[in-house]
Amino acid sequence: MRFAGFETLGPLVHLLVPLVIHWIAEEMTVSVLVDVTTSALCPGKSTCSQAIYLSGLQQTVVGVFKMFVLPLLGQLADEYGRKPILLLTISTSIVPFALLAWSKSKVFVYVYYVARTISYIISQGSIFCISVAYAADVVEVSKRATAFGCITGLFSASHVLGNILARFLPEDYIFEVSVCLLIISTVYLKLFLIETVNSSSRLEQHVPLMLMVQNVFNERWNSMKDTVTVVSHRGTLKHITIVSFFYELGMSGISSVLLYYLKSAFGFSKNQFAEILMMVGIGSIFSQILVLPVINVLMGEKWVLCLALVSSVCYGLLYGLAWAPWVPYLGASFGVVYVLVKPSTYAIVSQAASSNDQGKVQGFVAGVQSTASLLSPLVMSPLTSLFLSSKAPFNCKGFSLVCASVSMVISLSLSLSLSLSLCE
Fold first, then answer.
1. Helix (H/G/I), strand (E/B), else coil: 411
2. Which of the 8 DSSP states describes residue 201?
3. Which ranges of 43-125 does DSSP label H, i.e. alpha helix?
4. Is 194 helix (H, G, I), strand (E, B) or coil?
5. Cβ 79 vs Cβ 200: under 8 Å
6. What mean pLDDT comes out for the span 194-213?
7. What's in the keyword line of the UniProt record (predicted)?
8. pTM exceeds cut of 0.70
9. Which CATH number fits the domain 4-194+232-415, given the four candidates 3.40.50.880, 1.20.1250.20, 2.30.30.30, 3.40.50.1820?
C-alpha cells in the first residue's frame, strides 16, 4: 500500500526539489554562524553581547519591513504567478553567504549582517507562504493538511542533512558549499517549476513614470485593504492570526538568542549545535510526514495545533530552566511535536480562505507573525544579555526564555476556543 502523503507530493516535485536544496544550504550555516560572528566581533570570548544585540537588531529591522513585504509578495504571487516570486525569494541568500565564503573578518561580518538582513526581509517566511499557496493550487482541500505536513517534514529533513554536512565538513568550506547549493536550487526552479497562475495582463505603455508608480501603490493599498477585510470578517482567520501572533512572539524570541545562550551557559560549539539540530530534525521528519497525516484524521487540525503548542511551552521552559548540559537535549526533543504548529496553521488558514485569496491570506498571516518577530528581540536581546552577564539580579541564565514561554501559553489558551470553518 502506498503512503497517501507521498502520493500527494506528486504535483509538487519540481517545487520541493529546489526548496530542499535551498534549505540544506541555509541550515548548514546555522551552527557555524555563532562561532564565526563571536570570533570576529569578540575574539577569545565565549559570550558576545555585541553579537546578541546585532542579531536582535537584525530581527527587529527584518520584522518591520516584513510586515509590509510579506503581504505584498503574497498579493504579487496571486496576480503575477508563484514562480517569479519564488525565484526572487530563494536567490537572495546567495550574496550574504558568498561574503563569508570570501572572508570571515570583522568588516565582512558586518557587511554580511547588512546583506543578510535584506535577504531575510525578502525571503524569510515568504518562501513558505508562497510555497503553501502553490500547493493549494494543485492539491485538493481534503489533502492539504497532509501536503503541508509533508512540506514541513521535508523542511526538517533538509535541516538534518544540512546539519550533517555542518558536523563533518571543515568550517572553511561550509559557506563555499552553501553558495554552490543555493545557485543550483535557483537554476532548478527556473528550469523546471510549472506556473499555476495566469499572470495579470498589464498595459502600462505610454504612462508617465510617476503616474505608473502611483498606480502601483494604489493597487497595493487597495489589495491590502481587501485582505484585511477578508481576514476580519471571517472568525477563523481572525482567531488563527491572533494565535499565530503570540506563538511567533515567544518562539522567535527563543530562536533569536538560543544558540548564544547555549554557548555562554554551557560552552556549546558548532558540534553540539549540529547534534541538537539533527536530533530535532530527525524526529520532526517522522512526526510531520508519518504521524501528522494519521493524527490529523483522528484529532483534526485544531487539536493537533493545541498539542503542538503544549509541546512548544515545554520546549521553552526546559531550555530556560536548564540546570545541566543534558537538559537542552531533553528540551530539544519537544521540537519533534511543536513543529506541527506550522502545518496545522497553514491547513486552518487554507481551509478558511477562498482559492483566489490563498496567497493574500497566507501572506497576511505571515506578516502578522513578522510583527511579532520584530517585537520579541526588543525584549529578548537586552534581557538575555543581562542574565548572561555578572550583573544579573538573580541566577537564572535562561530567564528570558522562560518569559518567552509565557507568550506561547497565551497562544495555547486562545487556540482552545478556536472555531474552524471551511470556505466554499
1. helix
2. P
3. 49-80, 82-91, 94-102, 106-123
4. coil
5. yes
6. 56
7. Membrane, Transmembrane, Transmembrane helix, Transport
8. no
9. 1.20.1250.20
